[in-house]
Amino acid sequence: MAYNMNPLVMKCPVPFPSTGIKCPACNRIQRDSSSFKTHARRVHKTLDVQTPSTCSACHREFPTFRAGSIHYARIHGEKSRKSPPKTASQDSVGILPSTPEMHDILRRVINRSPPTTCLPVPRSPKQPQSPSTQDLIAEFLNNSPTRPFTPMSPAQPTSNCSTDCPRPPTQEIAPPIPLHSRTTICPHPEPQVNQLIEYLRHGGNNHEPSPTPSDRSSPSSSPQSSAPPRVLHRPSEAVRNINADLERLKATLEDDPDDDAPSQSPPRPPPPEPTVPDTQDPPPQDHQQDPPTVPANAPNPRQPQQSPQRPPDMNNSQDALLPETQDENLTEFHRHWSTVFSSNLSWDEFAEQCEVFAAATKTLAISLNQPRNPPPTEGHTNQPRRPPNGRPVQQYNPNEAKRIQGLYRNSKKRAARRILANNSTTFTGSRQSAQDYFTEVFSTRQCDTNTLLNHLQQSVPPSEDDNSHLSTEMSEEEVMAKLRTASNTAPGPDRVEYRHLKRVDPNAKLLPLIFNRCLRERDVPKAWKDALTILIYKKGSSDDASNFRPIALMSCIYKLFMGVIGKRISSWAIRNNILSDEQKSARPAEGCYEHTYLLKSVIRDARLNKRTVYVAWLDLRNAFGSIPHTAIQTTLQHLGVPEELISLITNAYTGATTSVRVGQETTDPIPIRAGVKQGCPLSAVLFNLCLELVIRSVKQKAADLPKNQSLSHFETLLSCLAYADDLVLVARSKDALQALLDSASSAASVIGLEFRQDKCATLSFVNRKGEPARVDRNVFRIQDQVIPSLAAEESYRYLGVPIGMIHNINDLDAIIPQITEDLAAIRTSLLAPWQKIDAIRVFVQPALTFALRAGDPKKESLSAYRTALISTLRDICSLPKRSCQPYFFAQKSAGGLALQDPTAEVDVQCIVQAVRILSANDPSVTAAARAELRAVVRRSTRSNPSANLISKYLSGDSDGPCSSLYYTYSSLWSRCRVACRKLQVKFVFSDDSPPTIFADDSTTEAKAVSSFLHRAVQQRYGKKLMDLPDQGKVARCLVSDDYGNGSTWHNSGLNIRFKDWRFIHKARLNCLPTNAVKARWSNTAPTCRHCPEAETLPHILNHCRPDLVHIRHRHNKLVTRITNAVRFGNVTTDRAVADSGFPLRPDIVIEEDKKVLIIDVTCPFDNGPDALEEAAQEKVNKYLPLKEHFTDLNKQCEIYPFVIGSLGSWYPQNELLLRQLGMTKRYKSLFRKLCCTDAIQGSCDVFRLHMGWDQAV
């Protein structure tokens, strides 16, 4: 034991004498026991107060004054003296009758689980203990002669009535769980306990059994039909002996918080591996509770205990544990629906059962996610402390906070949409205007299938490979793989989400039964065809519905089904070259970055090499919603998709409807007679297949053009770039571009697509030898409509990136205000603080990352955003302005938040873009990038660009040919050179393989370059943090754990309370208001407010003697965590080893056969890199004599110090103990995190009690 406190014992007679009793320590008169406790807390802070009592009437001894007072009031009080004397019959019957009803109540008391509000009370081994409630009841049941049934066998009928009064047999009783050995304070006892207490308070003389539920509900029962005569149960001698201890039973039913007696631990279950808590269940509160890994009857870690020698026999009904109700419900659910979907149902019955299945899935998933031990709804809640200086407490709606935090845990996107709603543009038109617009959009459109088929035969070749696998039945593995990768998007009308399906059917045992029936029937249930459409703003006027993208919210079961089909078709189309390489949508590639790079490279090459280029950006009007269904069918038939699959897709749209949400209203259901639904995983695949006619028609036309009119970029022919419905056409002459536009117009008209000319644009850059470069305003037409042309200073935003002849330096200036507003919205939201950090990482940083990588940003534009980010993070973490900035960007292993510094992110994204472009999957992109890089190096160095020279150029070297460079313009490669120099990164280029990156004596390849560079930047910020003499000392200790177990709660909030969050960030940066800290800038004395030592944070958390009781609680919590994880041997806690001759008391000793493990827990302050190592070595040296003692007994003994820093540092050598305890990999990961947060919780409690912010419990 690390902290042993001397007891202060004052024996009190009951009743307390009116003259009072002197305090044993200072001889001051105390008028009652409560005033003595108050006096001891204030004056004798370092002593452990104990108040045993003796009854002055019967001289019985009790461990606490409260227990003695209860005894005296009930036995010797006025009510007891005034009560009439008991008759002989009453005395013979006894106080506690042995009836079946009493057996039932007692067994329910034994089997009860401790409520979540129970608080463990430490016991002192020096005081005697009266038997616990469970001990007395178990003794009564074991000695009772009227034991009518056994726990695991059918109960025998027992009745107090005569033979003509039938009574149904008692139902089978579940086996009892092991008795609770830990004394608890139960503010809200279970109903069974209340029933037993109420029975005992009324004297226990009413032995008439209560009617069974069947008796109460029987229609024949009436007041006139009196109950049969009672049969008094005469107790045996054993029962009368039990009744002699009735008063002890009464006293222990109401647990005493001052009870200090020892108890023994229950039997330990024998499984070879510890039970892994279910971490998928969402917690009911803001901080997650630790799921118990063993039954709740775990022993108190600071009392001497000896685990039983015999392991529990699982075949014995006395030792078997209760079955898991949740698992039974899930098994029954699978059994029922497997039978339903495997039976021979008609299609209408099957469709109806699918609706019932969806409702049942949602209900069961919600019930399974409910906490097994929900917190009590009643009880005293501490009121928030009013801030100083009279400032009011911040007001917020706790119900709304609970709702938004729960929503964020289940669906981050939906929560972010609600939080950032004020920052997004919504549709301002009327409901009727939306109804009219979308009714027209989804109306039937005609398509000449014969003409379409002729065009397809001329331009789009069909597949010649076997396609039978597209319509085969779906396997469990295929559906499970798709389900696991599905993100939890917004649900459809049935309200079933992906998380519900993952919870109820994680291994996809039921879903393939549904999907394969749909494949056989070539149809989907009617309920799957209904959708709700929401409007996402694109650009333009907010009252025009055409400026919004309609996203359909459909059943997640339907989307999962279509997702599997879409994956099959897209893989087949890419493998057989049905989809063109120019179409980057629905491909496993970074199409946006590749297309924007190619387009900017073409324009840059034209400016530098005096070439002419013509560009046309095309936008389709309601592209997804305007393709006729007959065009989709004809295209799929031509490409070779199986007829069964075409029929399924056709029937899925037959009778489909959608309702559009406008504000708080929705339109009437609108039939979908044309187009595909955006939001369906199959829609993008179908649209891309249909758009192939347009892409291939343009490519054919470009191939027929003369060489001087078609555009060849570094020996790669370019004519069309496509990303879904965003098209770009390029050519070398005006006539060539118009010819490409005419080809695109003709093909689009054939399949029923229409271009929106007001959102299209053209750029005509003329740069001929002998003439100045200029931008002409030429007239181009698309579907007989004039396309607007760009001026020299204008740009067109393509895939989110402005592209034109002049670089738009104000691009970031338009993005930064929006991101800053998002930061402010997250900062003021009701999310938990760790959720706010995660929201910044998930929703704010990616928006900036895309702009930094795809564009040409300037760092000056990011200064305002960085200032707002630092201010927001300090507010979320409750940090003062003097807190250092590297803390927010350092790696988690150093205790940092691991967020992205926007100024460093500019350089990171530049290098990432260069590496990814040079290693793209598209050969045309890679060839163009390598050719442009060689041209840039040749022009800049005036040397032949070898691989070695290119590597030196990109790495930022300044020797040899790179000593004096000739720059004519900025490019991706020149910016990459600057970025590599700033980040100290070495870029290695190869002629025939992807490039590699070196940084900080480590290397990575192209696929992992982004994470590699982010880690490098975080480590450099971590070094800056650790170099700080004051705010970096905890970081120097944390960094010894490479996996950052002490900081895993930053984003999840695992086992962290709100007050822990406000404490830990300040504590790790030494920004807490201790006297030693305040003395630096004020006249405050640095001495401790409770002792003469200097009040530093290490002193408060580890050394202040008045706080040793609370410091011991932190220590005990970790001991309990370890003992709960032990699954073998005899475990002894806090006890001197018998016959050793040493007064040493290790925290835990585990003995099994000839092997002994000595475990001792310590929580040193995280003061520098060697603090944990020194504490561990002290423990090893301390228990070496015990090790020698066991060695002399021919036993193998090992000493395992378990070290956790007071601020959550994890000692890496603790892994040796975890390996010895046989933990699974998953449980070890959770165990580390919980131990670190346990230490943080304990330190927070110690600090707050020291400062007087909390009251001691």
From TrEMBL:
Q: Which SUPFAM superfamilies match?
A: DNA/RNA polymerases
Output this protein's name.
Answer: Uncharacterized protein
Region of interest (Disordered), residue spans: 76-99, 113-132, 143-189, 202-237, 254-320, 368-399
Bias (Polar residues) occurs at 143-163
Biased-composition ranges, Low complexity, are: 213-229, 295-308
- Cross-referenced PROSITE patterns: RT_POL
Ranges of Pro residues composition bias in the record: 264-285
